[in-house]
Design brief:
The protein contains eight helices and 13 strands. The chain has 348 residues and is α+β, with helices and mostly antiparallel strands. The chain has three domains: 37 residues, no CATH class; 200 residues, no CATH class; 98 residues, no CATH class.
Length: 348
Amino acid sequence: MSASEALTGLNCPRCGGIVPIPEGEAVVRCPYCELASLVSGEKGVRRYQVSARVTIEQAQAALQNFLKSSLSIAPGVRREARVNEAFQVFLPFWTGWGRALAWGFGQKQVGSGDKKRWEARERKVTRDMNWNTAACDVGEFGVTRISLEGRPLTAFDPEELHAAGMVFEPSGSAVEALAQAKAEFENQARQEIGLDRISQLFVHILRPRLGLVYYPLWILRYTYRGRIFQVVVDGYSGEVLYGKAPGSVAFRAAALVGGMAAGAFTAVTLPALIARNTDEGELELLLVLLIAGAVMMLFAYRKYRYGEHYEYQRYQAATNDLVISLRQITGIENGGVMEILRDLERMK
């Protein structure tokens, strides 16, 4: 590459002048102030791949199992669905590894009713953590993260992957991805501490590392009564990671009636029975029941309103929808919502 073809989009940190960066150069000098700078970029990110083990026949079998996996799916779709396309892709995922050390000081709630009390606790967490997120636009496929547990990583071989399927290239910044990984490690450490009230928390991440992992996925597109749907199958394990299917009308109606009835009983009837002999210590329980009933009714309505299409995602936060719904009803921020969820868990 000639000097005229060199990358010229970066500014000198001292004088602000444009610095040309010839390909392959690790150290460059500003042509105006002679400041030497070290070049670091995507080439410094290690690349790995996970080998594909699932055949197209196994992927199609996973699709058939998916279509009978839920009552929310229209009962006739498995019989009438026709697969139009089936192809393999390799998507890149930013992947972070690190070891978290966390010390938490605070209080833990023990007991219940009149015997409920707060006890001072000190907790320490030390464990290896990993995180990943899609390194390209995956709106078409719906898979934002994967599981790498038990998946052997091998060196990136672009020729092998291109011969096996479509290979997508990463986008975005490795620096931002590493910062996101560190933030997620810290969040996981906070959750592992397990204190109801935290007065002090110290989190340190040892040797955070970042890499790119190219992961195999099978994309299967099928038609049902003139409509096109898509299912994404893990190319290593054979499990469905993301899928869409037509919804069941009967299930939507049953969910609406049953959810509204259960929500009304939880939010109205049950608190009324408790309130007859209530005392001040049970007011918190009544509030929790009221909110839980409202959430049940909201879920029932949403299941009916948006149940025309069934959508499944393998890896997602289990309480995301519940937290959002509680915030919509109560206006309580995330911290307060999690307190309510812990109260509901204690009631089980």
